[in-house]
Design goal:
heterodimer, A: 282 residues, mainly alpha, 2 domains, 73% helix, globular, disordered N terminus, B: 290 residues, MetI-like fold, 12 helices
Chain lengths: 282, 290
């Protein structure tokens, strides 16, 4: 990852190329990050200023954020989003690593069939399962419950694929050695396999958390009263609500939705982006 | 059954139980539903449901809104995939050129929209694209152009959503392509330089051929995602104006909302077939990688 160019083009042309590249990249960065910056700056403007296409607030105010508490119940939505995302993440880490390990390292009848079945569902569009899942959750009496929000997402096929591929690249010696020493299968899984899987678990954990945090359609139809709304649902329903739309409130709400995902991403981005690249190419 | 087999099944059981109930069963149920006239009102009285064979699929062929949604989805894929791929490739190539500092900053910045909620993105873009006071039309106003009502006009709403999708997703492809670029041996470039190839010639004759599998993979993954596009119109245009941004997934969702469960399932299976076709194409072109 050195910044030294291995190619030996003439120096003058390099300089021109460099200027052109910086110009393109900086323009790109402005276009990509600009809307987020504008969102952040506008969320601390009074309502009248937001619709004026300016960048910096003339008057700085936190009123929009106060309104999230006073006029809407954002703390509840935030807690719901967090509960759902954490449960979904924990479930996927546990269930996908168990099955991924079985598929990669344990010989049992039906192993190949299970792998192909799970892999096959990776291709199924969300809309195919959406209606039957809704009918199922309704018939189980789980609409407007945390169980209804979480259950359909607890065991995702992608996680199995990710964990299996990662475990395939780990040599069998350690596991065999523990088995020879007389360690039970659960003990081997908890003490040896899971610690070895840490990078894959991190990637899966971040991906699942972000997907669940940003998930929108399912909670939109399953959560029917405000006490079960997640943040994206609340934000979407408010933005198309019957009342006069308060854009300051909307932007402050958007910031509250974006920031936790952003923090998770920024803190863990190094291993996260590396994980995306390797799983994408596997 | 042997001890080994029992252990394997014990490890597989928790996932497979949830998988069977909440994923495999719905996939099958959807197929069965697509062959019936099931409506939301029939759920309490299953005996009222009739088997109608392929009637739903035949009806889809003469459903003008469905055909419209197919065309819109196709446009979204055919324009959106190349656009997203070109942006992703340009960013990856620029960052990999060895001429740029602060690569981490650019990489994180370009990836930002990928991890952002579509609802928040919709809130911001609807304001940014506002015909009177939005940033885009204000900028156009500076150079004397009166910008259109981007999301409110039938001629610009779909193109606007395509561009926003490319804006949102090219960061993902950039990361995939960067990983691919780093596997190209430096000797290839050295040899090309000795042959007198400039940067553009090197890009065309070394980078592009070597990156072909990665490019194809990225394009297919993006295509599968775009075939199912739904959330963008749902939160930004509600499928309008005049169904100009209605997608197949959105049509399924609307039919679900009207209570036409059997019909909605049939429409969703058409989408399924398209996704499978695209995936098969990918495996054919790349060869199976297990």
């Amino acid at each position: 990852m050195s910044t030294v160019d291995t190619r030996t083009a003439p120096r003058g042309r390099d300089r021109v190329a460099r200027v052109v590249l910086y110009a393109i990249l900086l323009t790109g960065l402005l276009v990509v990050v600009g809307p987020f910056l504008w969102m952040l700056l506008s969320s601390v403007k009074p309502e009248a200023e937001i619709r004026q296409a300016t960048w910096l607030p003339r008057t700085w105010t936190l009123e929009n954020y106060r309104d999230l508490f006073d006029r809407l119940d954002f703390p509840t939505f935030f807690v719901n989003s967090a509960i759902v995302a954490l449960l979904v993440t924990a479930g996927n880490l546990a269930f996908c690593s168990l099955l991924g390990y079985a598929l990669a390292k344990l010989a049992f009848p039906g192993r190949r069939a299970i792998f192909l079945l799970v892999l096959g569902t990776l291709m199924v569009p969300g809309m195919v399962t959406f209606v039957p899942q809704f009918v199922l959750v309704s018939n189980l009496g789980l609409t407007n419950t945390y169980a209804g929000l979480v259950l359909p997402f607890l065991a995702g096929p992608f996680g199995v694929f990710l964990m299996r591929q990662y475990l395939m690249s780990i040599p069998d010696d350690l596991i065999e050695a523990a088995r020879v020493d007389g360690a039970g299968e659960w003990r081997i899984f908890l003490r040896i396999v899971l610690p070895l899987c840490r990078p894959a678990l991190a990637t899966l954990g971040i991906l699942t958390f972000l997907a669940s945090w940003n998930n929108f359609l399912w909670p939109l139809v399953v959560a029917t009263t405000e006490d079960k709304y997640t943040l994206p649902v609340a934000l979407a329903l408010y933005s198309v609500g019957q009342n006069r739309i308060d854009f300051g409130l909307l932007l402050a709400g958007a910031v509250v939705v974006v920031v936790p995902a952003l923090v998770v991403f920024l803190v863990l981005q190094r291993s996260f982006l590396r994980g995306i690249a390797t799983t994408g190419l596997k | 059954m042997s001890r080994r087999a029992l252990t394997g099944w014990a490890f597989a059981a928790p996932f497979m139980t949830l998988f069977a109930v909440f994923l495999a069963l719905p996939v099958l149920a959807s197929l069965v539903m697509s062959l019936t006239d099931l409506r939301s009102t029939d759920l309490r009285n299953p005996l009222a449901v009739n088997f109608v064979g392929v009637d739903n699929f035949v009806r889809l062929l003469s459903d003008e809104l469905f055909l419209r949604s197919m065309v819109n989805t196709l446009v979204f894929v055919v324009v959106g995939v190349p656009l997203t791929t070109v942006f992703g490739l340009a960013a990856a190539n620029a960052l990999n050129s060895g001429l740029i500092r602060l690569r981490g900053l650019f990489r994180v910045g370009f990836y930002l929209p990928v991890v952002t909620s579509i609802v928040a993105i919709a809130v911001v873009w609807r304001l940014v694209l506002d015909p009177q006071s939005g940033l885009v039309n204000s900028l156009l106003g500076v150079v004397g152009v009166t910008g259109p009502d981007w999301l409110g006009s039938t001629s610009t709403a779909l193109p606007a959503l395509v561009v926003i999708a490319a804006w949102r997703n090219f960061g993902f492809l950039m990361v995939i392509f960067l990983a691919g670029l780093q596997t190209i041996p430096a000797e290839l470039y050295e040899a090309a330089t000795i042959d007198g190839a400039g940067r553009w010639a090197q890009f065309r004759h070394v980078t592009l051929p070597a990156l072909r599998p990665t490019l194809l993979f990225g394009a297919v993954v993006t295509g599968i995602g775009y075939l199912q596009f739904f959330e963008e119109p749902l939160v930004m245009t509600r499928g309008g104006p005049l169904s100009s941004t209605l997608s197949v997934s959105y049509h399924v969702y609307n039919q679900f909302g009207f209570g036409n469960y059997g019909y909605a399932a049939a429409a969703s299976y058409v989408l399924f077939v398209a996704v499978v076709a695209l995936s098969v194409l990918q495996f054919r072109l790349l060869g199976e990688r297990d």
